[in-house]
């Protein structure tokens, strides 16, 4: 097997892979929990900022983004069992578009999976500080504590990781179901959900009696809301990273992905409908809230139970934090095992068979970025930057990787039409193309946000550092990992 002279492979013996083994455990429901758990924090907070453009804008944006994710997840459901490797997005793009395509896709996903847990742990720290009354200056201690706890739980073993994932995901979903049931007797949709209008200066204003337009800012409002609707589904695409830890990825991976996506669609539209409609809250207030679900619980049950309810609300954050740490470890592991990142990052625990080096390294990088912002800019300003810049960096990485994964799907359909596909997407190339279009439009409206320019700069730096490493060293020391062997073998078969 050979590859163009732009890359070279280093020979390794069997001991290399013996130090990088994984253990199979996950079935359909473990995979379902991994996908839902990664996303569920977005149903607790984040999506609600889109309400500033009107409830109808949030609804339509949610539908558009749901279509994008359906196209993406059905494409992934086809590619993952056909290419059942831990590399996932990198693996798909590597087979479809060569080493550079695989690396750029993997690098964009790396931005998402390293920084998303950092954003989540920042919000966890804020909640915990409120519950226990710790000073703002102590926030970094919460970050360190939660990273140590959940990286440790992920290192102990894949069995424990998936068990915890299932438990916290069910608890988080249970919390949402309790809210839905509790909210139903307290909603007045016309009065509260439709209480946003367009002011003379074009800014949203509160309508005291409600009854406003579904689309106070027209189609521009819908398009501007797309980036916020992403939080209702962001990270469901991480599921294929567990391919080599799935008992039967060719059978279970499509089921887990599709069941997870359907669960999230139901949950997303229930929270969008009920949370803004609860009496005493409304879309206008929720549009600037850092904890919309908690505000909903307070409106229903009163302020007296605030700390208890805040503890409940942390469940959703913990579920996503735990599961994305799992994904981060596998994502770094797969790129390092193939030589795109330093191979030492792919070593797994001798007895636990978990990618502990990758998880620890990724967490240190994330904490380093958080500390730089927190201490470099001051606690107050640093907190705002963490909440905006890192969040937007993660979404940028996600949108780019979605585009590349959908493109990989189209290329693989045309380039390798006869490859064994245990599952075929019912939406086919049309669904993948629609995903690409919506991802580009969403990215455009993210870039229009002034707060996003800083995020773009930092993502550019991340890419420059990664590309320089790969160009100077990585591409000359690639290793025939399962992803690389598969890509080279099918390149020859395709006669490319």
From TrEMBL:
Specify the protein name. Ethanolamine permease
What's its membrane topology?
Answer: Multi-pass membrane protein
Q: Which InterPro entries match?
A: AA/rel_permease1, APC_superfamily
Q: Give compartment(s).
A: Cell membrane
What species is this protein from? Pseudoxanthomonas sacheonensis
> What sections of the protein cross the membrane?
25-44, 56-77, 113-134, 140-157, 164-183, 217-236, 257-274, 308-327, 357-377, 389-412, 424-445, 451-472
Which UniProt keywords are listed? Cell membrane, Membrane, Transmembrane, Transmembrane helix
Signal peptide (UniProt feature, chain positions): none
Keyword Membrane carried by entry: yes
Its chief place of residence is membrane
Could you confirm whether the keyword Membrane appears in this record?
yes
Gene3D superfamilies registered for this protein in UniProt: Amino acid/polyamine transporter I (1.20.1740.10)
Q: Which domain of life is it from?
A: Bacteria
């Amino acid at each position: 097997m050979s590859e163009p002279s732009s890359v070279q492979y280093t020979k390794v013996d069997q001991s290399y892979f013996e130090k990088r083994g994984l253990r199979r455990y996950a079935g359909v429901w473990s995979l379902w929990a991994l996908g839902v758990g990664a996303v569920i924090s977005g149903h607790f907070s984040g999506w609600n900022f889109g309400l500033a453009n009107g409830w109808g804008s949030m609804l339509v944006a949610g539908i558009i983004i749901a279509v994008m994710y359906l196209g993406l997840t059905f494409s992934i459901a086809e590619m993952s069992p056909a290419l059942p490797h831990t590399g996932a997005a990198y693996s798909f793009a590597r087979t479809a578009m060569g080493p550079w395509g695989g690396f750029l896709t993997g690098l964009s996903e790396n931005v998402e999976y390293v920084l998303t847990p950092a954003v989540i742990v920042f919000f966890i720290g804020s909640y915990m500080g409120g519950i226990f009354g710790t000073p703002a200056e102590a926030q970094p201690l919460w970050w360190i504590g939660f990273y140590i706890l959940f990286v440790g739980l992920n290192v102990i073993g894949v069995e424990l990781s998936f068990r915890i994932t299932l438990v916290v995901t069910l608890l988080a979903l249970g919390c949402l179901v309790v809210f839905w049931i509790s909210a139903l007797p307290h909603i007045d949709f016309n009065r509260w959900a439709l209480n946003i209008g367009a002011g003379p200066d074009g800014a949203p204003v509160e309508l005291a009696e409600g009854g406003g337009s579904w689309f106070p800012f027209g189609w521009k409002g819908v398009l501007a809301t797309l980036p916020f609707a992403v939080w209702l589904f962001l990270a469901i695409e991480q599921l294929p990273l567990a391919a080599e830890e799935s008992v039967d990825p060719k059978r279970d991976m499509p089921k887990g992905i599709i069941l997870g996506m359907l669960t999230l669609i139901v949950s997303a539209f229930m929270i969008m409908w009920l949370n803004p409609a609860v009496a005493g809250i409304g879309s206008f207030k929720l549009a600037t809230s850092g904890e919309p679900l908690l505000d909903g619980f307070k409106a229903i049950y009163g302020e007296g139970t605030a700390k208890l309810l805040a503890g409940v609300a942390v469940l959703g954050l913990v579920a996503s934090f735990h599961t994305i740490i799992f994904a981060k470890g596998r994502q770094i592991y797969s790129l390092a095992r193939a030589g795109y990142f330093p191979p030492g990052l792919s070593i797994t625990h001798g007895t636990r068979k978990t990618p502990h080096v990758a998880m620890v390294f990724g967490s240190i990088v994330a904490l380093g970025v958080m500390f730089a912002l927190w201490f470099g800019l001051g606690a107050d300003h640093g907190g705002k930057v963490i909440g905006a810049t890192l969040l937007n960096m993660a979404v940028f990485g996600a949108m780019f990787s979605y585009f590349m994964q959908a493109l990989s799907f189209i290329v693989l359909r045309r380039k390798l039409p006869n490859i064994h596909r245990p599952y075929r997407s019912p939406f086919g190339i049309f669904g993948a193309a629609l995903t690409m279009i919506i991802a580009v439009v969403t990215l455009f409206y993210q870039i229009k946000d002034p707060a996003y320019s800083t995020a773009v700069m930092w993502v550019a730096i991340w890419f420059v550092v990664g590309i320089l490493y790969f160009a100077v060293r990585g591409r000359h020391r690639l290793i025939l990992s399962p992803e690389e062997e598969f890509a080279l073998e099918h390149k020859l078969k395709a006669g490319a």
